Amino acid sequence: MSGLDLDTITEVTASVREVFAAGTGAAVLAKALDELGWTEVVEADPAIATTILFSEQGRALASSRLLDDVVLNQLGSVLPAASGSRAVLYPRTGATPGTVGILLGAVEDDTEIVSMAMDENGNASWCLRPASDFTTEAITGFDPTCGWSLARTSTAATAVAAAGTSWDDARAAGRLAITAEIIGVCASALELAVSHTSARHQYGRALASFQAVRHQLSESHAAIESARNTLAAAYAASPEHGGGAWAAKVAKVRAGQTQAIVMRRGIQVLGAMGLTLESEMHRYVTRAAALDALLGGHAELAVEIGTELLGGAAPARVVTI
After folding, report:
1. CATH class of 77-162
2. Is CATH 1.10.10.10 the right assignment for the domain spanning 166-310?
3. With left for phi above 0 and alpha for psi between -120 and 50, is residue 121 left, alpha or beta?
4. Residue ranges of the chain with pLDDT lower than 50?
C-alpha cells in the first residue's frame, strides 16, 4: 500500500517534472529537490518516490548522479563514514570490476570513488579510492548527452569492506531505479510517436488513424504498462531468500525488452523522419539502450536467469496471488 495518495502522487510528479525542466546541474537539482521537500516524500514512500524521480529523469533525457545516491544508500552500513563526496564506479560488461568502469558524471579529484574489486579467488570487496587515481574519458560516441565517463586505473585497490549481500542489495536498488528511468524514456518516446503520427497526414488522413500504425502504438503502450506493473511488483516482492534481488533482475529484463519494442516501433511509425537527426527519436533510442546496458543488459540478465534456473535455483516469488 502506497504511503502517498493518488492526488499527492500527481502533484509530486508534476513538481519533479518542473524540476528537471529547469536544469539538472548537481547543485541546482539538489537545491530544487530540497525546496520541494523531497526528504519527506521519500520517507512517506521510498518506492513511489524513486519511481517518480527516475521516471521523470528519463522523460527529460536528463543526466545526473542520482543513481549513485540510490546505490550508496544501500552501502551505508558497510562503508566507513564519508569525509566528503562520493561517486560510484559501475562495472563495465567484460571488464574487471574496479579497474575499468563507468562514472555517471564529472567528479573532483578528491571525490571518493566507490568500486567493487575481485581477488584471484573470485571474492568481491568494496574499495574506496580518490578520483585522482583514475583517468577518465568522456563517452561521446553512442549517447553524447549522457555525461558518462569511462574510468581506468592501474592503482591496486585496498578493500575496506566485504561485498557480500551488500552488493546484491545495492545492485538491486540500482536496477529498480534504472528500470523506472527506462520507463520514463519509453513513455516520452511514445508521446513523440503519437504526436508525429497525429500531425502528419497521408491520403487525406492522419497517420495515427491507420490501423497498422495504431497497432504499433498500442504494442508500445502495452509494453510500457507491463514494465510499470513489473516494477511495482518488484518493489513489493519479499526480500527473503533473495526475492528482492531476483525481482529487480526480472524488472530490469522487462524494461530492457520494453525499450527495444518501443524504440523499434517508434522509428517505424516515424518513417524516414525516424532515421534522421532532425527528429528527437534518436535521442530516446540511444539513451534507452545506454540505460539498458547499465548494471546488466536485458539479454545478458535473461541468460543469467535462465542459467540459474537450469542450475536448480528456485525462483523467488515476485507476485503472491
Report:
1. mainly beta
2. no
3. alpha
4. 1, 241
